[in-house]
Amino acid sequence: MQNRLMDVVEKTAVKASVPAFEIGDTVDVHVRILEGDKERIQIFNGVVIARSGVGPREMFVVRRIVQGEGVERKFPLHSPRIADVTVKRSGKVRRAKLYYLRNLSGKAVRLKERYTVTAASAQAKAAKAERKAAKAASRKEKAAATS
After folding, report:
1. What is the pLDDT of residues 56-73, one digit of tens each?
2. To pair with 49 at 20 to 30 A between CA atoms, which of 22, 39, 85, 93?
3. Mean pLDDT of all residues in 132-136
4. Domain 2-114 class in CATH
5. What is the pTM of this model?
6. Coil, strand or helix: which one is 100?
7. Could you tell me where the DSSP H helices lie in the chain?
8. Domain residues of the chain, as ranges?
C-alpha cells in the first residue's frame, strides 16, 4: 500500500519539462523567492559540480565564487521554486563529481569548453566541403585540358 502511494506521489511531483544540462556546465538557476506577499526571481549562476538522486528526488549542486569565497548551493531539480535553468556554456569534463574544484583558485578553476554541433555549423561544414570538391574538380579539368 505504502509503495503504491509513494509511486503516485513521485509521478505527480516530477516536472514535465526538465532542462538538459550536465556536470561541468555553467548555468543560471532562476529561483523564485517569496518576500512577504511578493514573489521575485533571483538568478544564481555557477558551475554544476554534482548531480545526485533519481526521479523527483534528483538534486544538483552549483558552485560559484563570490568575493574570493566559494559558494555552493544545492537545488532540487523538480522543485516548484526553480523557475528555469539555462545553460550558458558547456564544460568539458571526465568526471561525475567535480569536488576537486574546491581546492583550486583563480584561472585553474576554469574548465575547457565543450563545443556542440549545431545545425548552422553542420550546414557551414557541408558548404565548405562542397566548395572544396568543386575547386578540386576544376583543377582536374584544367590539368586534363593542358595535357
Report:
1. 899 999 999 999 899 999
2. 39
3. 88
4. mainly beta
5. 0.71
6. helix
7. 2-13, 119-146
8. 2-114, 117-147
